[in-house]
Amino acid sequence: MSADDPAVREVRTADYHAAGEPFRIVDTADPGLPPAPGDTVAERCATAIGPGGSGTAPRPGALDSVRRLLVQEPRGHAGMYGGFVVPPDDDGAHFGVLFWHKDGYSTACGHGTMALGAWAVDTGRVPAPDEGDVPVRIDVPSGRVAATVHRSGGRTTGVTFRNVAARVGARKVPVATSFGIAEADIAHAGACYASVRARDLGMDVSRAALGDLVRAGREIRTALAGHPATWHPDGPLLSGVYGVILHEELPDTPFGPHQRNVTVFADGQVDRSPCGSGTSARLALLAEDGRIGPEDSLLHESVAGTVFTGRIVPAAAAPGAAPAGLVTEVTGSAYRTGEHRFTLDPHDALGAGFLL
């Protein structure tokens, strides 16, 4: 076994998907799992990343070894996403979460928030009626978010997540790629996203173009490294381009804009969903363009054909939030795909696994 292999030999998970994007849930309160020290979720995330590490290059550590065990093959895959459930910052939230993916950790995750809301109700962690809505408050590294779980006939029919405030960082930033020059719009919505029109690079948003879209996304993220507009005033944990949203226009619906996107995040990972926090970033940009208001909604499609709907929350319904930016809500669905007990045989030469 290598020095990077985890000391933990068994991990239980609950797996969900939201609009096609996986989310693997691990409760760190389970016996035998390493702790995530810190007084806040943001501090716990910094501990998991480790001194000198970054969100996409964490330092080796006990908790991070569990992430690698679950995200790497043969137990996971390069498109896997998940979260460690941790204590909240205070009694105002039901729990906290550290979001992770194949390369490390993220400060926000809309589809994961939806999955966590469904999980909290499914497991009875948050009591819910057979009919009606129940809020699930979750502390994440970028702040406090809420997942409103919609119930009908004794089952969950959808989840709406209210994100931290979104704001525009910069518009029309020129970016050179191997496909040509593009203009990137930068917005912060729990994480930093760069939006680029796919047609500017001679592409459409389709499965056939996915290889080129991923390549372009990686090039754009690299080109924008260190750009002042990607810096967040709350510090380095929230700074730097996390995802690149390559999008295209579709015919408007009676309720507002209709777009399709592929979000390329971390080191070339593709979001199978329309991207929850990325949808918030798109809403901030559309609002600045005057294309969407509080009475409208964005129909947002993924490259896989799944959908989220997004809207701007009127300032009166989000008191105190307006000075920091726009408050947005994104609605989608989340379904359980399985419960697992992953094990690591100490004689297994593959150890925690590999990524291709």
TrEMBL record:
SUPFAM superfamilies hit by this protein: Diaminopimelate epimerase-like
InterPro entries documented for this protein: Pro_racemase_fam
Family: Belongs to the proline racemase family.
PANTHER family: TRANS-3-HYDROXY-L-PROLINE DEHYDRATASE
Protein name, per record: Proline racemase family protein
